[in-house]
Amino acid sequence: MNNLLSIGTIFFLMVPVTWGQDIVTDIDGNVYQTVQIGNQIWMAENLKVTHYNNGDEITTGYSNSEWTNLSIGAYAVYDDDLSNANIYGNLYNWYAVDDSRNIAPEGWHVPSDEDWMELEIHLGMSQQEANDISFRGTDEGSQLADNADLWNDGDLEYNPVFGTTGLAAIPGGARIGGDADYIDMGNWGDYWSSTTYLWGAWVRNIAYYNSAVHRQICDKHYGFAVRCVRAVSSYTITVDFLSDWNLVGLPLEVEDSNYLTLFPNAIENTLFSFDDAYTPDSIMIEGEGYWLRFDSAGNTTIIGSTINELTISLNEGWNLISGISTLLDITAIQDPDQIIIFGTVYGFTSGGYSNAENIEPGKGYWVRANNSGSISLINN
Known about the structure:
Layout (H helix, E strand, L loop, with lengths): L3 E4 L2 E4 L9 E3 L5 E7 L2 E4 L20 H5 L6 E2 L5 H7 L2 E2 L1 H5 L14 H10 L4 H4 L3 E3 L3 H5 L10 H4 L15 E4 L3 E3 L4 E10 L2 E8 L5 E7 L9 E3 L3 E7 L2 E6 L2 E2 L5 H4 L9 E3 L3 E3 L8 E6 L3 E9 L2 E6 L2 E6 L5 E2 L10 E10 L2 E4 L2 E2 L4 E6 L3 E6 L2
Antiparallel strand pairs: 1-2, 3-4, 4-5, 5-14, 6-7, 8-13, 9-10, 11-12, 12-13, 15-21, 16-20, 17-21, 18-19, 22-29, 23-28, 24-27, 25-26, 25-28
């Protein structure tokens, strides 16, 4: 650890000259896998429930003509074949989605149009695209879909990002009623939102022949699949700091990442990031490490959503990084290209620099790389 630059009373290291799954159970005892995507937790399977949360039955068994004219909540199974429910779940009309007795498990809800947009934007869609209708974005549909054997051959499953989110949307088709009856199994996965517009409600459709996501308004009498969602619960992390200089990081996803909001006891204008040189900063970024100065020792409490996975880009030489929301042993750092030089992960305490054994939430660390590339920190 040589080549130090003195700033105030601290010596800064100078660069040399040169990322477990939960389940949810509905009132009928059906168990669903879940997946966290951004700040949302989604069911990774289509809803199969046949009762509202108060125990009342959701009506079923209607003929085509009856289904078309319903104004109460109901469900059907594709082709009236109960074996389809095991794979594809049930097809619900929108009146079941909107019923105050609630078809979603306790603490969950049928996603709104805005919930779907949040998911799509997290996967790379722009806000402008999300607000549009028809097919939008690029490959978000392929990211959301899975189970290639259920889909007819097409662009959706041939995209290299097919199945990468774990949401596992499937082509369960729809019930239209009237002469059309059940349609599109294998071709389309159709999902309700809870948001009405004009005479209908917003829907998301994923098609076998297109890797994007389709958004449209559909008749409330139609029968579509349902996925339920909930927000990631707020999490609290307390970060201790020393008098004078500290290496710090951002341990949670937060609404306001200004350093004085997160560390209100910090000395103003003392946040520095590092990228071949020190740069004054005011906004903290996930995965980045920072120097920050305090008049006295203490701690701060940060509230936000957990960071369970980070991919961090490293430059050749020294880098300042921070970790995820849980303690991570440095041996768990995923370094596929072996760019981290062995023994060069350093933390900073009152005694100076020392080899780090763990990446602690809210702390910053020096890491030296023999080349540029990426590493991943994952809470398995």
